[in-house]
Write a structure and sequence with these properties.
This protein is mostly helical and about 90 residues long. The chain contains four helices and two strands; from the N terminus they run ααββαα. The chain has a single domain, classed as His-Me finger endonuclease fold (3-Layer(aba) Sandwich), CATH 3.40.1800. The protein has a two-stranded antiparallel ribbon. The longest helix is centred in the first third of the chain and has 15 residues. It is globular, with a radius of gyration of 13 Å.
């Protein structure tokens, strides 16, 4: 997806694109941590929903915004069914 987005973004830098992707992810989650549903204040990470070590991609559909505590607690585990359903609902809304 990002390659396609880059193609149509013209001469934007990768950093500008990254900011736009972050904004899209934060907007779709309403600035809430994906895992605990608390407001993301200050530091947050874009977590690989399906970890790269388990075959997950780098595209925006495989990234969720998470607070530092939830990101650390999730680690490299695969998402549980409830989390998969929640992400599907977010992506389809």
């Amino acid at each position: 997806m990002l390659k396609v987005v880059e193609k149509f973004m013209g001469d934007m830098t990768r950093a500008d694109l990254s900011k736009k992707v972050r904004k899209v992810i934060l907007d779709r989650q309403k600035d809430l941590c994906f895992y605990c549903n608390r407001p993301l204040m200050g530091f947050y990470v874009l977590d690989h929903f399906v970890p790269r070590s388990k075959g997950g991609s780098d595209n925006a559909e495989n990234r969720v915004a998470a607070c530092q505590a939830c990101d650390g607690a999730k680690g490299g585990r695969l998402p549980i069914n409830e989390e998969r359903q929640r992400l599907a609902t977010i992506l389809n809304s």
